[in-house]
Specification:
The chain has 3 helices and no strands. The chain has helices at about 10-65, 65-75, 90-109. The chain is rod-shaped. About 0% of the residues are buried.
């Protein structure tokens, strides 16, 4: 009277189905979290790009203005009108650094 252990086929199929379902749900949840993180990052980048776009659109309004073009030419290219004399002065930071050291020594005397 030996009893053979019989594999319960429906029980095994149910176990495999449950395990497969758990794996699928786990992968799906992981994908959802990674997509939400990516969405948050893209929204941040989008906000920065919109701010940059607004600044560039504001500058574009000035590009066609003759006074703006003349001002930029004077600043960036150091252009002058005929008859004008261009004076190049030292930066204020350099002057104040040198002057600050000598001013402190005279104040202490």
């Amino acid at each position: 009277m030996k009893k053979k252990k019989r594999l319960n086929l429906p029980r095994m199929i149910l176990t495999v189905f449950i395990l497969a379902s758990m794996v699928i749900v786990g992968v799906s949840v992981n994908n959802i979290f990674s997509l939400r993180a990516e969405q948050k990052e893209l929204k941040s980048v989008n906000k920065q790009l919109l701010a940059e776009k607004a600044a560039l659109q504001e500058e574009l309004k000035n590009v066609n203005d003759f006074e703006y073009i003349e001002e930029q030419a004077r600043i960036q290219l150091r252009l002058v009108k005929p008859g004008e004399i261009l004076y190049i002065l030292e930066d204020e930071d350099e002057e104040s650094g040198d002057r600050g050291a000598s001013d402190n020594s005279t104040d202490t005397e």
